[in-house]
């Protein structure tokens, strides 16, 4: 295992109300991705995680065999209920399933003051499919993602398949990764992270962050594992936690890269397919 320095977010003191964040995402019955991944990382980062469930997937280590989407009005009401009482310092989106849910989440985020240029940053992980290729977002929802949600994002975090669907750019190298980041920023995201996890030609996994001005590159050693289910959710959740703790976006992405790298180092086999990344490494520190 590589030995990277450990960057930790502060743990709450006994009886002290922790920093709060909300995930607006789908449930993974296998416990490795979606809401379950977000809550695992939030808990291990000392953050009280709140939830707006968007869909319930039927999923295990072999893939997603079906899902049921939640009524968009119920998604919006979950967001209102959390923000009006508990309060949050950051939010993230994951699986949103349909254009109706995307529109509801974007409108409710505006109503509640969540998103870029507000005090509550929004991390948009534009989940479109599982690692097995199972669809988690309707084909006709891509326009809503581009036109109403990405312009609200403080940070958008697509993988390379999602980059292709959203921007039409096929990222194969550093130049196309930069072009994709520029296009995502031009679509209205304050910051774009183009994740390099799927660029398997290198011994590095390089994520690129861009805000219309400066590129920040995050090269980390590629970890040799097939147990990488939930890596994207975990990265976005860790960014959200660091933002909730008051870190800047580049600091939050740096923290999250270190976090997900350790989670990949500690990933374990589960079921007959791909096991999950493992935030429980934090219990050993
Ligand atoms: N084998 C790996 N070794 C190190 N980092 C990885 C590896 N696979 C993915 N990552 C990192 O995990 C995060 C999620 O990446 P990616 O796999 O591209 O997203 P997704 O899970 O959404 O498909 C990124 O920060 C990426 O660089
Ligand atoms: C309910 C749910 N949400 C998101 C995903 C995809 O998660 P991701 O982190 O991109 O991980 P992989 O699918 O690549 O393992 C999901 N599968 N289920």
From TrEMBL:
Domain (Pyridoxamine kinase/Phosphomethylpyrimidine kinase) ranges: 28-278
Residue ranges of the TM segments: none
Family matches, as Pfam families: Phos_pyr_kin
GO BP of this protein: thiamine biosynthetic process
Listed GO CC annotations: cytosol
The keyword ATP-binding belongs to this UniProt entry's keyword annotation: yes
Pathway: Cofactor biosynthesis; thiamine diphosphate biosynthesis; 4-amino-2-methyl-5-diphosphomethylpyrimidine from 5-amino-1-(5-phospho-D-ribosyl)imidazole: step 3/3
Name the UniProt record assigns to this protein: Phosphomethylpyrimidine kinase (ThiD)
Organism name: Gordonia jinhuaensis
């Amino acid at each position: 295992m590589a030995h990277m320095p450990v960057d930790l977010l502060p743990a709450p003191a006994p009886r002290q109300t922790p920093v709060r964040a909300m995930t607006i995402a789908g449930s993974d019955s296998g416990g490795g991705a979606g809401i379950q991944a977000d809550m695992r990382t939030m808990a291990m980062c000392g953050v009280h995680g709140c939830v707006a469930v968007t869909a319930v997937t039927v999923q295990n280590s072999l893939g997603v065999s079906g899902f049921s989407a939640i009524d968009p009005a119920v998604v919006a009401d979950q967001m209102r209920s959390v923000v009006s009482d508990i309060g949050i310092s950051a939010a993230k989106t994951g699986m949103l399933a349909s254009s109706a849910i995307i529109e509801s989440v974007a409108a409710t985020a505006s109503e509640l003051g969540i998103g870029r240029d507000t005090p509550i940053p929004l991390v948009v992980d534009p989940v479109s499919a599982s690692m097995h290729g199972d669809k988690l977002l309707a084909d006709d929802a891509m326009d809503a993602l581009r036109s109403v949600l990405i312009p609200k994002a403080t940070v958008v975090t697509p993988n390379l398949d999602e980059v292709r669907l959203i921007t039409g750019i096929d990222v194969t190298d550093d130049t196309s990764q930069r072009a994709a980041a520029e296009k995502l920023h031009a679509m209205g995201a304050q910051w774009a992270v183009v994740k390099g996890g799927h660029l398997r030609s290198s011994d590095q996994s390089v994520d690129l962050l861009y805000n219309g001005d400066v590129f920040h590159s995050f090269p980390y050693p590629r970890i040799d594992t097939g147990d990488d289910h939930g890596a994207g959710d975990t990265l976005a959740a860790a960014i959200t936690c660091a933002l909730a703790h008051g870190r800047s976006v580049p600091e939050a992405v740096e923290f999250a890269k270190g976090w997900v790298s350790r989670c990949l180092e500690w990933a374990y086999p589960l079921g007959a397919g791909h096991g999950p990344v493992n935030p429980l490494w934090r219990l050993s520190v």
